[in-house]
Amino acid sequence: MTLSVTFCGAAGGVTGSCYLLRTPVGNFLIDCGMFQGNKTVKELNYGPFPFDASDIRAVLLTHAHIDHSGLIPKLVKAGFIGVIFATQPTCDLLTYMLPDSGYIQETEVDRLNRRNARRGLPTVDPIYTREDAEKALKRLRPIEYHEWVEIVPGFEVRYWDAGHILGSASIEIKIDGEAGQKPRHLLFSGDIGTGEAVFNEAPEGPADVDYLFVETTYGDRERVDVSASERRGLLANEIREALEAGGNLVIPSFAVARTQELLVDLAALFNSGALPKADVFIDSPLAQRATGVFARYLPPEDAHALTHPNFHMVPDVEASIQLDRIKKGAIILSASGMCDAGRVRYHLKNNLWRAECTVLLVGYQAAGSLGRILLSGAKSVRIHGDQIQVRARIRNLDIYSGHADQKTLLDWVKGRLPVHKKIFLTHGENAARATFQDLLHANDIPPKLLSSPTLDETIILQRGQELQAPIAKRGGADAMSREDWHNDYARTLTALSEKLAGLGTNREREKLLAKLGSLIDRA
């Protein structure tokens, strides 16, 4: 039977990571992640999988981040009855992350359906529920680093520390060939870490493989190397300036890993006197639970730092709402890190319009996400249907990224050589992939060895006598690396509102609206 891989996510974008590996001994998934970013991309979460979930024998999970794990409950709901393999820390994190994701799906859809009812639009169903997520957890099975495990006869896997977050892995796979054929040897990078993160070791992995699948999130940029003390100094400067401005500091932060890294550094800064006493509110139920998981695996000093007396866990929605009463001096860490869901949107809504406040972005912002729009310098944004003026200071601190930069990615790829058949560049926006591909070529890796697949593209790794059914390609792939029409629509509404407000008379406003109406009628 033919051996092939289909890129069912994170091809031309950085979310929705999912590879369908069809082999002579069955079909497998490497990751099953949720799409994030603009609305066109997020709509992919609601459509059917481009494969039959009941035909998947097992899922091999690289790590717990939702863009790699977030559609697992949907997979189980769709008929998957196999095992999900992941490291023990990843399993522990998913115990909280997947139910939390299900709860978010339910609450976001409930809010949308109330709005749709007022507009006379049909209701929609959540991608999955908290109950679906609880069912998916029963299929998790822990796997150790560095040990070969036979998933089924003829299909072995070995996990390597990817250095990205707690429990993250690169996955090595060996697949027995048919009679007279050599086994195929594959390596999926997952997300490669920096080697300098607060909690993680340098990324590792084997060399001498047939096929290498490597992420390229930061394939087009290098970051300045900083020590722990330099990193904390940069954070302290941002916080001091924010507090001196006289307002609140809102930090949209990924609930898993990024929040805990920030807390450890904040504790060190408070203890050393580098920062004045300030209240830090962790307003994310998931971040609170994930912090407990991290504490079980961290050295005692770091675990103790997570419970600093300046840190206040926000227990419920009512307490979160009460934070709106605080007008200055508060540091609010809240998810999501791309500002596209969760409680952080309420804090942005309450603080963005205030010139004395600051928003500090500390992670990757996908194309079309609210975080990317803020980073691009937008003067106003729409949150929960309301237009909000952006008067707050928008700051960016990229040193906390959990992804390897261009140089670290290049070194990691070189460490995997020789690669005999093909290097697939994935999990990166198109510009980043193209830049990294040129860099690999400049480092004596021949162009014929390199491939940048598109969403739902199938590539034959080894041709067999039995043909495989084609995989239907979904729409929306072209929006993975850019903003979409929903972003244009929001920007147009904002521009229209500002233009109308700036006109001197009602007659001028009537003329402008009449002109727009005429254009719409002719469209």
Automatic annotation (TrEMBL):
<keyword id="KW-0378">Hydrolase</keyword>
<dbReference type="Pfam" id="PF07521">
    <property type="entry name" value="RMMBL"/>
</dbReference>
<dbReference type="InterPro" id="IPR011108">
    <property type="entry name" value="RMMBL"/>
</dbReference>
<feature type="domain" description="Metallo-beta-lactamase">
    <location>
        <begin position="15"/>
        <end position="243"/>
    </location>
</feature>
<protein>
    <submittedName>
        <fullName>MBL fold metallo-hydrolase</fullName>
    </submittedName>
</protein>
<dbReference type="Pfam" id="PF10996">
    <property type="entry name" value="Beta-Casp"/>
</dbReference>
<dbReference type="InterPro" id="IPR036866">
    <property type="entry name" value="RibonucZ/Hydroxyglut_hydro"/>
</dbReference>
<dbReference type="InterPro" id="IPR050698">
    <property type="entry name" value="MBL"/>
</dbReference>
<dbReference type="InterPro" id="IPR022712">
    <property type="entry name" value="Beta_Casp"/>
</dbReference>
<feature type="domain" description="Beta-Casp">
    <location>
        <begin position="259"/>
        <end position="374"/>
    </location>
</feature>
<dbReference type="InterPro" id="IPR001279">
    <property type="entry name" value="Metallo-B-lactamas"/>
</dbReference>
<dbReference type="Pfam" id="PF00753">
    <property type="entry name" value="Lactamase_B"/>
</dbReference>
